[in-house]
Amino acid sequence: MHSLPIPTFQPRLKVLSREQALAIHTAALEILEKTGIKMEHEGARAMLVDAGARPFEGDWIRIPAYMAEEALKTAPRQIALYDQNGKKAMALADENFYFGTGSDTTFTLDLESGERRQCVLADTGRFARLIDGLDNMSFAMSMSNPQDVPKIEFIYVYAFAEMVKNTNKPIVFIADRRQDMAKIHEIACLVAGGEEALRRKPFLLNYSEAISPLRFPAHVVDRLIFCAEKEIPICLPSGSNAGGGAPVTLAGAMALGIAENLMGLIIHQMTRKGAPFLFGPNVSVLDMKSTVVSYGCPEWSLTQAALADMRDEIYGLPIWSFAGATDSKAVDAQAGAEAMLSIVTAMLSRCNLIHDVGYLEYGNTSSLEMVTIADELIAAALHLTKGIPVNDETLALEALDRVKGAGSRGIFLTDDHTFDHFQEALFLPELMDRSRYDAWMAEGGKDLYRRANDKARELLASHRLDPEMAPELAKEIDQLLGKL
Amino acid sequence: MDFTALSETIIKGNMDGAVKETQKALDAGSDPQQILDQGLIAAMDVVGEKFSQGTMFVPQMLRSAKTMQACVALLKPQFQAGTVSSKGKIIMGTVKGDLHDIGKNLVAMMLEGAGFTIVDLGVDVAPEAFVKAVADEAPQILGMSALLSTTMPSMKATIEALKQAGHRDKVKIMIGGAPVTSQFAKEIGADRYAPDAGSAVSEAKGVLAAG
Ligand code: B12
Questions:
Q1: Which of A248, A283, B42, B205 has its CA 20 to 30 A from that of B3?
Q2: CATH T-level topology, domain B4-80
Q3: What is the pTM of this model?
Q4: Each residue of B46-88: pLDDT tens digit?
Q5: Crossing angle for the helix pair A121-133 and A368-386, to the nearest 10 degrees
Q6: The domain A73-385: what is its CATH number?
Q7: How many CB atoms sit inside 10 A of residue A74's CB?
């Protein structure tokens, strides 16, 4: 007689019941049907009205629910992102999760002096290279808004070129308008070996934003349409932050953000059926003392876990989310605590594309050390999320017999079973310090920030891309930049 | 006349109560300017203090400001045209290319709560539009907001445009927004910088006190 192996339960966080998920979805559809959207893009407005939306009061339109349901049907359930060598790197679907950095911080903590200073282009390169060298980071974003670019109106093109040169992992990028986005697309085509190759194996995803409440500026819709036409994967959260752009109660903030996302999805799928769209609003909170939009609050973790439930119950589309960030100004205990809470919950709720890892100061400052620490926090969270495999080998009754047989000196540390299994059974931290006090002091008594600083420096000095960019390609990109 | 009861209702954000107290004060023959200064604006000063101490939150502060506005509306007809003195006029706007407005709106509301008259030009405001508004409205202060590194240069362009048009000396310029720093304010020749709405109010008061 053989019995089936016992499947391993992998811990999972659920925060919405089916009834709750459906009620939020219904409210979102009601917002589209009854409240309407301010659609400032004339072409999109005409297209939507043609298809059944009703115009009112200038550029406002009301959108019947069936248009949203149709768009949800044609959008693909999986978005596959490739690395720059053409290998599939991220299968954004179902319960798969991938972590990466965030976009435009104004300041960064200097690796040498520890001072908070304005970001420069070299920082964009450093963050991309660090990401390339960290095992648990899957994609790169700019992490900086470089001050030293030759032409500020093309800032996002320079940042993209810098990322492409410093990592082979997928890239999530920002653009301001159709014109700079087209340049970024040109660079991406050079890297992928042509437009068709890029279409088949995209290594990039655009992060654009509508404006809560209910506003779709023309240049944002331009980018959305451009991405749909070229099948560049895109996400379009709208910053429906509780108490700011959206109601202070999380259900209302989610309903609004989802309505806005659905509006984006409708335009996107009408432009090109089946083009890849990453779903999800950003629902954080406006802090009621400082009035910053928080990047360390528990509410954001809660709303994205809720969104994951809505994905499972209703949408079936991969989702956009955040983790590993903090409102703290320093890489300190608050930073670690806030980062870990969001990392664990994002993983336990199986969010898909998880960005903003390494943000300090509510997204105003970035830190290479913080990214490095978060990389290990992700590894720890992963260990937790894998659960406890239960089978004869892990129950280890035979090993127990052996140790018992060894008499009074019996200890599992010396048993072969330990030798065979300790590497997968245990989490073996690298940065988290468990050394004895004297050993720690002998190493300089360094706190986590200092140890992460050491590791980041070492990685930046030693890590090589596999392969580094061919000089001819780098030259072509530089020529393109020179002509901006 | 004692305005303690009126001030209390403003601080609590009790709109009906505050309007009743204001009416009572008027009926008792109090001077409208005194009601404004010692009842309403004094209450908002307390609100500002409580907020800095962390015992009041932003929504409560905004409710107090709204309550105050309702009372001001009641006072307005009591003044002969031009005799009610607001603290001063401020033009506010988010600069060209920038659509972030939550911070700008908050600053505008807080300034209004502190007794300033606000002319809000909205978002994506071109330098020429700021210049025209300064010419038309003759404000004491021009407030500009930018949340993007790419739009910060537009603040400088606006200051240049004001110089060109010969209006720079007629108005004090205050700037803010997450990526903006006091260093940047100095570089572009702005007069004041504030990192948040609360300090924007003190800066604005400071400008007027300096004359
Ligand atoms: C909400 C938000 C949005 C919303 C804006 C909605 C709206 N109606 O305003 C949406 C989603 C539309 C948006 C869009 C974009 N955003 Co945005 N956004 C934010 C976010 C999360 C919060 C801003 C906010 O509202 N804060 C709350 C308010 C109350 O605070 P505040 O604005 O700082 O204002 C306070 C002070 O600065 C000061 N202040 C402000 N103005 C003034 C003026 C004066 C005169 C004074 C004295 C003081 C003052 O007082 C205010 C009150 O205390 C910030 C990150 C962050 N946490 O700050 C990014 C952020 C500002 N955005 C950013 C970016 C890059 C963008 C996009 C380009 C993203 C994209 N992928 O397209 C677009 C640009 C759109 C455009 N052309 O403007 C970057 C900017 C980086 C940079 N240095 O350039 C940030 C920093 C995020 C990041 N790290 O990447 N965004």
A1: B205
A2: 1.10.1240
A3: 0.93
A4: 998 898 888 999 999 889 988 998 998 898 887 765 555 677 9
A5: 30
A6: 3.20.20.480
A7: 15
